[in-house]
Design goal:
- By secondary structure, the protein is of the alpha/beta class.
- It has one domain: Indigoidine synthase fold (3-Layer(aba) Sandwich), CATH 3.40.1790.
- Helix content is 48%, strand content 14%.
- Strands 1, 2, 3, 4, 5, 6, 7, 8, 9, 10 and 11 form an eleven-stranded mixed sheet that branches.
- Strand 5, helix 5 and strand 6 form a beta-alpha-beta unit.
- The longest helix is centred in the last third of the chain and has 28 residues.
- It is globular and about 55 Å long.
- Bound molecules: pseudouridine-5'-monophosphate and manganese (II) ion (MN).
- The site of manganese (II) ion (MN) has 3 residues, from loops.
- Homotrimer.
C-alpha cells in the first residue's frame, strides 16, 4: 500500500536523513497559489539542509511517500481532496479517493515508512471550550502512540493551549522548546506557557529521541520551534482576530473537521493576508530545523558521529 518516489526510496534504503511533510496544510491550510509555492520551497529548504523531503498523501489506493510535482499540484488545486486524520485513513485508502493527510495522518504514514522526523506548521489540539464540545484533535492521540518527532511552531491560539499541554503530559509526550523556554503560539513566539524541556542543538534532540525509543517509550515528541522574530505577529493583536474568528465559527455552527480550516481562512482574511506570510515563514523555518534534526538522528543511529 506504500508507494515511494525514487528519491525517498533511495534515501530510506541507505539510511539517509528524510523529513516527512503533510498535505493538509497544502489542500486545506493555505490558498492557491501560495500553497504550491510554499510546498516546493519547503522541499527545497529540506534538501539545502542535508535531508530528503517526503511529502505524504493518499491517492489511487496508495499511501504516497514523496510526491511528484504533478501530484503536489493536484493537492494544491483540486477542491475535492479530503482531509485525512486517523479516523478517515482506511476509508480514503480503501475507496481510492485522494486524501490530504493531517499531522495525525502523516504520522501514521511516516511511522509505516520508518521516517522519524516530520515538519509542519502547527499541531492540532484541544479546542477552546473543548470541555463542552469534546473537540480534541486526533493529532494528540497520534502523538501519544506513533514514534515520530514533530517539528512545529507550537499550537495556534485558536486552541486552548493550556489544556493541549495538559493532554500531552497525560499521554507522556515530551514538549521540547528548540532554543526557547516558552511554548510558541504559531503566529507569535509567546503563549504564556512554558515548554517541558529546552534543548539548543539538533544533536541533543536526536539523543532525546533515541533514548526515548530505546527505552520502549512509545509515541512522538513535539519539537516547538518559534516563528522567526522578524515575521512574528503581535500576540495581543492576533488574540483579538482569533476571538472574532471563533465567534463567527460559533454563529455559523461550524463543527468537526471543518473547524480548523474555517478558522485558518478567517484569521487570514481578518489580518489582510499578514497571517499567511507568517505561516509561510514558520513552515520554512520548521523544515530547516527538522532537516538538521533528521541528519543528527541519522548520524547517531548509524554510528557516524
Ligand atoms: N494548524 C495549523 N495549520 C494547519 C493545521 C493545523 O496551523 O494546516 C492542520 C494540520 O493538518 C493539523 C490539522 O493536523 O489541521 C488539525 O485538524 P483537526 O483540528 O481537525 O484535527
Ligand atoms: Mn476537531
Amino acid at each position: 500500500m506504500l508507494s515511494y518516489t525514487e528519491e525517498v526510496k533511495h534515501a530510506l534504503e541507505n539510511n539517509l536523513p528524510v523529513v516527512a511533510l503533510e498535505t493538509t496544510i497544502i489542500s486545506h491550510g493555505m490558498p492557491y497559489p501560495q500553497n504550491i509555492e510554499t510546498a516546493k520551497r519547503v522541499e527545497k529548504m529540506i534538501r539545502a539542509n542535508g535531508a530528503v523531503p517526503a511529502t505524504i498523501g493518499i491517492m489511487n489506493g496508495k499511501i504516497k511517500i514523496g510526491l511528484t510535482e504533478q501530484e503536489l499540484q493536484e493537492f494544491a488545486t483540486n477542491p475535492s481532496v479530503e482531509k485525512v486524520s486517523r479516523r478517515d485513513f482506511a476509508y480514503i485508502l480503501a475507496t481510492g479517493k485522494t486524501g490530504a493527510t493531517t499531522v495525525a495522518g502523516t504520522m501514521i504514514a511516516a511511522g509505516l515508512a520508518g521516517i522519524k522526523v516530520f515538519a509542519t506548521g502547527g499541531i492540532g489540539g484541544v479546542h477552546r471550550e473543548g470541555e463542552i464540545t469534546w473537540d480534541v484533535s486526533a493529532d494528540l492521540t497520534e502523538l501519544a502512540q506513533t514514534d515520530v518527532a514533530v517539528v512545529c511552531a507550537g499550537a495556534k491560539s485558536i486552541l486552548d493551549i493550556g489544556r493541549t499541554l495538559e493532554y500531552l503530559e497525560t499521554h507522556g509526550v515530551p514538549v521540547v522548546g528548540y532554543r526557547c523556554g516558552e511554548f510558541p503560539s504559531f503566529y507569535s513566539r509567546e503563549s504564556g506557557y512554558q515548554v517541558d524541556f529546552r534543548l539548543d542543538t539538533p544533536e541533543e534532540i536526536a539523543s532525546l529521541m533515541q533514548t526515548k525509543w530505546q527505552l520502549g517509550l512509545k509515541g512522538g515528541l513535539v519539537i516547538a520551534n518559534p516563528v522567526p522574530e522578524a515575521d512574528a505577529l503581535d500576540h495581543n493583536e492576533i488574540e483579538q482576530v482569533i476571538k472574532q474568528a471563533l465567534q463567527e465559527a460559533k454563529t455559523k455552527n461550524i463543527t468537526g473537521k471543518k473547524v480548523t480550516p474555517f478558522l485558518l481562512e478567517k484569521v487570514k482574511q481578518l489580518t489582510g493576508g499578514k497571517s499567511l506570510e507568517t505561516n509561510i515563514s514558520l513552515v520554512k523555518h520548521n523544515a530547516e530545523v527538522a532537516a538538521k534534526i533528521a541528519a543528527a538522528f541519522c548520524r547517531k543511529h548509524t554510528g557516524r558521529i
